[in-house]
Amino acid sequence: MSNKEELKLGIDLGTVNTLVYANSRGIIFNEPTVIAFDKETDEVVAVGNEANDMVGKTHAKVRVVKPLVSGVIADKNAAIRLIEYILNDFLEHYQSAKLKKSTVLICCHSDLSGVERNALKDIVQGFGINNVLVQEEVKAGAIGVGIDIYSPTGSMIIDIGGGSTDVGVLALGDIVVSNSVKTAGNHLDAEIKKYIKMKRNFEIGMSTAERVKIALATVREDLVEEKEMVVSGRNLTNGLPSRITVKQSEIRDVLRKPFQTIINAILKVLEQTPPEIATDIIENGVILNGGGSQIDGLKEFIESIINIEVKLSPYPLTAIVKGTKELLKNNGDYLVAPTD
């Protein structure tokens, strides 16, 4: 990368994972949105995977923080320190990069308020970067899976992330209709954890709940062969460490209500979609993106309700940050299709 070349960064600052794209370098960071501090010195002791491994296992001298909750910055200082770590690590490896002359595009969910969008911009501008863009995740995600959102042909994408589920209809380079709900991966984990505590009198951590979701989550009514998983935690009857077996049918039933919320969000968008664009969606189908798209039977479940073909994203975990690469080419201008 020459000294004269402008550095362009795309940031998908997600509730669960943060991904960063750099021009000429590709994806330079793809790790959990977690940071750990020494309580006495306030120094960063771990970031990303290392910090995530500490969740639920810390002692009194270490504080582990997840800066975002439901797609919104909950701890601004921790978010700043996380981005600072990523940028400094990048510059250490690519010293020719000129950070202050950079263009940074950061993604957010579609119903983020103006105040919340400005908070995202402020964090990045605090590093001396003036050209900061904020774009919706559904737009970047649609581009990332290969949809030409700049054409008159309408398209629809459902992105089930960690903190929010975003549903968007796009045409002519921008969002026509969108909806966002805070029912997503983290909420599913919390529901599993709550169920096991209330119904099985057994306490597990959020990381264990996430592993249960990944292994057993399904929306299929008929299970050909029911899966089971042994989980470790604390027996609330005697307070001792123990193990229990969790069945897939239990998890399916727990997740019925959250997925109904997601279905309602999808239906709301479809009800507000202009008729001509609705015709395009019927012909071309709907894209299902994000980590939640990988839940067993979800594609067929959504199809059975909306009667439209649902296609799984080829890049469910990286489509958004891939889309930033294209949006950076035109500074997010919906009137100009990106060109190489």
CATH class of the largest domain: Alpha Beta
Give me the CATH superfamily of the largest domain: ATPase, nucleotide binding domain
CATH fold-type name of the largest domain: Nucleotidyltransferase, domain 5
Mind telling me the C-alpha Rg?
A: 21 Å
Strands of the widest sheet, in order across it, are 3-2-1-9-10
Whole-number tally of structural domains: 3
Binding site for ATP: 162-164, 210-213
InterPro entries: ATPase_NBD (IPR043129), MreB (IPR004753), MreB_MamK-like (IPR056546)
GO molecular function: ATP binding; oxidoreductase activity
Pfam families: MreB_Mbl
Explain what you see.
This protein has 340 residues and is α+β, with helices and mostly antiparallel strands. It has three domains: 8-140 and 320-327, ATPase, nucleotide binding domain (Nucleotidyltransferase, domain 5); 146-183 and 256-313, Nucleotidyltransferase, domain 5 (2-Layer Sandwich), CATH 3.30.420; 185-254, Alpha-Beta Complex (Actin, Chain A, domain 4). It is built from eleven helices and 18 strands. The chain has helices spanning 49-52, 76-93, 114-125, 137-144, 185-200, 206-216, 248-254, 256-272, 275-284, 298-306, 319-327, and strands at residues 8-13, 17-22, 26-32, 35-38, 44-47, 62-65, 68-69, 72-73, 103-108, 131-136, 155-160, 165-171, 174-181, 202-203, 228-235, 241-247, 286-289, 310-312. The strands form five sheets. The chain has a five-stranded mixed sheet, sandwiched between helices. The chain has a five-stranded mixed sheet with strand order 13-12-11-17-18, with helices on both faces. The chain has a three-stranded antiparallel sheet with strand order 5-4-6. α4 (137-144) packs across α11 and α5 packs across α6. The two termini are 17 Å apart.
